[in-house]
Amino acid sequence: MDRLFLDANVLFSAAYREDAGVRRLWNTPRVTLVTSEYAVAEARSNLATVDQLGRLDALLEPIQVEPARTLDPALQEGIELREKDWPILGGAVAAGATHLITGDLRDFGPFMGQVVLGVLVLTPSRYLNSTR
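Predicted structure:
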């Protein structure tokens, strides 16, 4: 069973529009969805309407939300990430995720399709296409 760690931008996209394609992740069989308090707070801070915030709360119900985590600095060596992205990768690693699902191509783009610290980094569409 895959254990998908959802980045803040995935949570944001799913909550932003009721018909967002990324919401298909919530209906994917044989997956466990996880995220972190850090990712939830970031998504929440970028949503503007009561409806969007309500959708986020509903989407979080089946998700395992883990405490915010960071990585031992020794593990960060050789991995180029901005400071704000370390808690996302650290959360995925700490949660025992098999995949980090992110739309953040700016920061995680160089790692797309690669395993970083035991976690495969993919966009939502790439993951969904791989399960067909």
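Summary: The longest strand covers residues 31-36.
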